[in-house]
Write the structure tokens for this entry.
Amino acid sequence: MLAMNFRGPFRVRIDRKPYPEILHPEDAIVRVTRSCICGSDLHLYHGLVPDTRVGMTFGHEFTGIVEEVGSDVTKLKVGDHVMVPFNIACGTCSFCKQELYGNCHESNPEATAVGGIFGYSHTAGGFDGGQAEFVRVPYANVGPTVIPPEMDLDDAVLLTDVVPTGYQAAEMGGIKVGDTVVVFGAGPVGIMAAKCSWLFGADRVIIIDHLEYRLEFAKKYAQCEAYNFRSLGDPVLFLKKTTDYFGADVCIDAVGAEAAGNAIQTILGRKTLLQGGSTTALHWAINGVKKGGIVSIVGVYGPTGALVPVGNIVNKGLTIRANQASVARLMPRLIDHVLSGRINPKEIITHRIPLEEVSEAYHIFSAKRDNCIKTVLIPPRAA
């Protein structure tokens, strides 16, 4: 089968790999119909995530048609068209019982933090992902959800990560009616977090980035204010001034390890890899939120330590909430939001590229060429 093949930082190609096999009675084999390139895939592509091994296939956002099921699979049948959450979750461990599907202990038992994730290095279990023609899907009774017949396939694929991650970013912010919400990062997740903030009753939503085309897109899609931090001078001072010097009620870090805007953080976190990523956006979130406010973190950072102003967190009495999105928990309400028209995920897709051109697709997305917001890969035998 055709599959994306990681050959080292900034080097991916299309290759032929063996077809996946049923390895456990609860496995399913899915023929991929849509897969995405995620901003967090770029952390792998850029060599920032430990134990990303040569030969791995990325891709944690995908839909597909069930081709084969293990003997214990009862939820799915051959021919079902499903959306597969990026979390690999057993459904029975103590964390899954708390609906913390991103922290499943069985799918990644050697880790102390994250559970299994499709196509996201051996720190997340070493599972091959969906940027391929076929994928082995473990725990098929737990994660995959049959796509409603009236749902557009492009909407469905974004329900596997982008929409639930953006929604949970807003949810973890504890947004109340009348709140001012600031989102750092106008990538797909940040844009979706801004969009979803209105669903929780926000009175004002601000998004901050440094790429003008993304800011213009965010303003139109999420109906929010958008500012280029390079034109603000000090983003924290700007936030203070625009909120009567209180600070925002909620700040969301949707950037993570590759944040720009601070030379020291860039050198330590992106160039020399001496810390788990550049925490510039997280600094701005902590310092720009009000006393007693909430900082929600969905941006991806590495497992090593990082320079974070913990004293400001303590002295301001902040609440920090962070996690990988629990997609299975959120899926029913997000399906309702999409089918009712409250969220239109497919509108953020700017590029549809054949899987065979995956190398060029990564280059376009990484280099921010052609006003790229979100890329969907189309396998050759997609429905």
Observations:
- DSSP finds 13 helices and 17 strands in the chain.
